[in-house]
């Protein structure tokens, strides 16, 4: 997966295409300049709360609007940012933006929990912790960190200690893409998570495959047994949504509920009628 990602990224950022025959123009300089030049933005995807019957949270997803390429999805730049040591400035930018936008949402009358994706390698980065803990304490922001499990596996003692510090600051911890990759029960046992997000690979198929549905159901029961809230990602059909409700799932996220959208579109959505009847059309 990593190799594929890097290959795609390398193809996208072929330096020769930028009139840089020496090949000096690196993604590193492009990414830093792009951050300064306002080429990055956040798209917010709503999370539907079955019990509250409404949107109570959103996931902030990074978007890079490249001047020539248009919108570049994060799969193409997150991996490279990680490899070149640029995931910290990117993530700090994301968190600062999410905090500002959470305040804008509050001003518009919407109390919304903001989820941000945190690359596992940042969980051992002391500078990151200092910066972000200060930003959270100053703003009183309500954040949730979505962590993918592969990441926390390396350097687990330091990562666990840092997770503890974020939790003390009121940050909720979510295990992203659960069930894919290197999922293990050991990981579930070790991380003091508040939420588990079951990978869309299982959710997207559950209206067609009873095996997928069974895997989702067992994961919901497992999460609840451990006292965790569970979110299903990749909810694309009304059948899937109904199945999840029947299984006692807590939250649903996916194209059926709403696509990732800019802040103003999110506010319009939240200002509209509550509930799901509007959402299928959104
Ligand atoms: P993720 O955290 O698992 O985010 C969910 C991804 O699934 C998003 O893709 C979202 O657009 C997509 N998705 C949501 N609902 C559906 C659905 O119903 N069907 C389908 N087919 N897809 C759906 P996106 O925005 O391309 O992000 C991809 C990944 O990039 C994210 O996966 C996350 O791991 C990473 N990412 C995004 N923003 C950031 C960031 O700021 N920092 C870091 N470290 N990673 C980020
Ligand atoms: Mg996520
Ligand atoms: Mg995910
Ligand atoms: Mg993912």
From TrEMBL:
Residue ranges annotated for the EAL domain, each copy included: 24-274
Q: Which domain of life is it from?
A: Bacteria
UniProt entry keywords in alphabetical sequence: Membrane, Transmembrane, Transmembrane helix
Q: What is this protein called?
A: EAL domain-containing protein
Q: What species is this protein from?
A: Brevundimonas kwangchunensis
